[in-house]
Amino acid sequence: MTENQRARIDFPATIGVWWASDTWAITDVQDVAREIEALGYGSLFIPEVTGKECLTQSAAFLAATERLVVGTGIANIHARAASAAESGARTLTALHPGRFVLGLGVSHAPLVEHGFGGTYAKPLATMRTYLEKMAAVPEQIEPGAGRPARLLAALGPKMIELSGTHADGAHPYLVMPEQSRKTREILGPDKWIVSEQAVVVGGDDAEQMSAAHGHLNVYSGLPNYRNSWLRQGFDESDLVRGGSDRLARGLVGMGSVDEAAATLQAHLDAGADHVVVQVLGDDPTADPRPALRTLASALGLG
Q1: Domain total for the chain?
Q2: Any idea where the Luciferase-like domain is (predicted)?
C-alpha cells in the first residue's frame, strides 16, 4: 500500500452500529449481528473494557454475517502485545478481506491500572511505540493478507496526527460533528474517519435527558473526555458528573427519531466517512434492535 492509498474497508453503507455485548451469549449476539446487517447497517463496532476479548468476538461476528464490516471500538492496547494485535488482525483480514477494522486506543488510567493491572503513562508515546512494534511484524505472518486497516481512538490534535502518520485514520468517540470536521482538516482526504454518535430513540424530553446523563456519567469522570469537551467549546460548568444539560444535548442525538438521525448525517456532512450509532438503553448492553429498527426506517436503510 502506497503512502497516499487508502486502506481497504468495504463499508456497505455509511451508517453502522456501536454496541457493547459483553453480557450476552456469543451465539445470541451473532443473531443480533445478522439482524443489524439485514436492517441495512454497514458495520458493527464493539468496545473492549474489562469484559470479553474483542478479536475473538470480531471473528464470531464476521463468520455470522456476509457483508457487515466488524470493527473494534476500541481494542485496548494494554490488553495484548502489539505482535498479537497485528497477527490476530491479519488473520481476520485474510479470512474476511475488507471487512475487519482494528480500532486501537490507549484507554484510561483507572481502567488500565485497576482493570488490567498495567501502567498508564505518556499515552502518545505509548501508542506510537505500540504501532511501530505492530509494523515490525514480518510479512510471513499471514503472507499476502496485507496489513489490517487500523484506526486510532483520537481526540486531541497530536493523537489525531498520529492516526494519520502511523495508522489509517481515526475513530472519534463522544464528539460533536464539528470535531469530525477538525479531524478531517488534520488528516486530509486520504484517511478514514469513523465517528461514533450516541442517540436516544423514543420517550419524552425528560426521559431522553435522563438517558443522556446516565450515559455520560462514567465518561464525565475521565480526564481524556473532559479535556476533549473543553477543546470542543464546553467549560468547567458543563463537566459536572453526568454532564450539564448543554453537554448532553451537544453530544447525544435527542428529540424525534428524524432529529436523532440528523445528528448522524451531520458527521458525514462534516467529513466523516462512516458513522456508528450507539442507541442508549437501560444499560450499555441493552438490546439495541428495537431502536435500530425504528432508526433504520428514518435513515432509509435496507
Answers
A1: 1
A2: 25-237
Q: Give the pLDDT confidence score for residue 276 in this predicted structure.
A: 99
- Tell me how far CA of residue 24 lies from CA of 230, 243, 287, in angstroms: 35, 29, 10
Dist. CA 169–CA 146, nearest whole Å = 17
Residue 241, judged by CB atoms within 10 A of its CB (0-12, 13-18, 19+), counts as: exposed
Q: Is 74 in contact with 171 (CB distance < 8 Å)? A: yes
Which is it for strands 192-199 and 75-76: parallel, antiparallel or unpaired? unpaired
Sign of torsion over alpha carbons 285, 153, 232, 228: positive
- The SS3 call for residue 51 is coil
Residue 185 lies in a domain: yes
pTM confidence score: 0.96
- CATH code, 171: 3.20.20.30
- Read off the pLDDT of residues 254-268 as tens digits, 9 standing for 90 and up: 999 999 999 999 999
Determine the Cα–Cα distance for residues 72 and 58; give it in Å rounded to an integer.
8
- In this prediction, the residues of the chain whose per-residue pLDDT falls under 50 are 1-2
Please state whether the peptide bond connecting residue 74 to the residue before it is cis, i.e. omega within 30 degrees of 0.
Answer: yes
